[in-house]
Write a structure and sequence with these properties.
Elements (H helix, E strand, L loop, with lengths): L2 E9 L5 E10 L2 E6 L6 H8 L7 E6 L2 E2 L5 H5 L1 E4 L11 H11 L4 H14 L15 H12 L6 E5 L7 H14 L4 E6 L2 H7 L2 E6 L2 E6 L1 H7 L4 E6 L4 H7 L1 E8 L2 E7 L10 E2 L4 H9 L9 H8 L1
Parallel strand pairs: 3-8, 3-9, 6-7, 7-8
Antiparallel strand pairs: 1-2, 1-4, 4-5, 9-10, 11-13, 11-14, 12-13
Helix pairs in contact: 3-4, 6-7, 8-10
The structure holds adenosine-5'-triphosphate (ATP).
GO molecular function, one term: ATP binding
Family: Belongs to the ABC transporter superfamily.
Protein name: ABC transporter ATP-binding protein
């Protein structure tokens, strides 16, 4: 299984370039596509799901250009769009049965597949509940189930954890990891913790462009030597935020423990170098330079 994205560019009506010369080759496993709001993730997902065509560039699924011949990809695609709409009057079971028939599943195999999937997303007891009366998290799980109906070889999920509580989130990540052995899974999100545990590879996107792609360890290595911690009085925090990129703060009895990102030298005399986390690497790659010329703005330039 192979999805090749070659120099993909997508301009929206009105000229907004949402995806810009994006190139990536995907194999089975979970790719975490990480980027801030507006990075172009949903547009890219929509092109890959053949909802919209690229302006230029090509996407090949198993060697076939999906713009010229979308059939092979569509037959094996599972897609959970960001703006996943449901019919509020239908029950989960009815909704999934309707989509199963649209996807060409026979009545018998649809029935057993739906029962299996409702179990997988922990909704067996809610099978007969109307979608309109479900919580956002429950509806999202129905969305995940519908994306899996045809046992897809390419599974695209766009911001799937929105509306899920922490336990559902974890369940969902485990579910994705379990599915990825023999399929290409693309998980698009702006939440670093979604990809930190579930993704084999991470692509970081901003402004329509692919900034970095690699295994989580490779991205962590990029931030090595750039992550510092120091405890400061809490009234210094606003000034530090002006001067440095700050990836986290924790209140302690002695003040605030601050995590600062700066390559090369300690941002404060008492700062200690610490192990980077994915949040740090992501912030270093995607943040606009902070105020001071010696801040992470320079480190960004070094990392790119
Ligand atoms: N239909 C459209 N017409 C014009 N511009 C659009 C359209 N859809 C998206 N855009 C613009 O394209 C850019 C990328 O949007 P996109 O939704 O793909 O990003 P995203 O990374 O998925 O962000 P979000 O998570 O906020 O949806 C944004 O600047 C957005 O305003």
């Amino acid at each position: 299984m192979d999805l090749q994205i070659n120099e993909l560019t997508k301009d929206h009506a009105g000229g907004k370039r949402a995806v810009d010369s994006f190139t990536l080759d995907l194999k089975p496993g979970v790719l975490g596509l990480l980027g801030p709001n507006g990075a172009g993730k949903s547009t890219l997902m929509r092109v890959l799901a053949t909802v919209t065509k690229p302006t230029s560039g090509r996407v090949l699924w198993q060697g076939t250009d999906i713009s010229k011949d979308p059939g092979p990809l569509r037959r094996t695609l599972g897609y959970l769009p960001q703006d996943f709409g449901v019919y509020p009057q239908l029950t989960a079971q009815e909704f999934l049965s309707y989509l199963a028939s649209a996807k060409g599943l026979s009545r018998g195999s649809a029935r057993s597949r739906i029962a299996e999937l409702l179990g997988l997303v922990n909704l067996t007891d809610a099978a007969k509940q109307r979608l309109g009366s479900m919580s956002g998290g429950m509806r999202q799980r129905v969305g995940i189930a519908q994306a899996l109906l045809n046992d897809p070889k390419l599974l695209i999920v766009d911001e799937p954890t929105v509306g899920l509580d922490p336990e559902e989130r974890m369940r969902f990540r485990n579910l994705l990891s379990g599915l990825a052995a023999d399929r290409v899974v693309i998980l698009s999100t702006h939440i670093v913790s979604d990809v930190a545990s579930a993704a084999d590879r991470i692509a970081i996107m901003a402004g329509g462009r692919l900034l970095r792609h690699g295994a989580p360890e490779e991205l962590l290595r990029l931030a090595e030597g750039s992550v510092w911690e120091a405890t400061v009085p809490s009234d210094r925090l606003p000034a530090l935020r002006q001067q440095f990129l700050i990836s986290g703060t924790t209140r302690t009895p002695d003040g605030v423990r601050v995590r600062l990102l700066l390559t090369g030298q300690p941002p404060l005399p008492q700062a200690e170098l610490v192990q980077p986390e994915l949040d740090d690497a992501y912030l270093l790659l995607t943040s606009a330079p902070a105020g001071a010329p010696t801040s992470a703005g320079s480190s960004q330039a070094m990392m790119r």
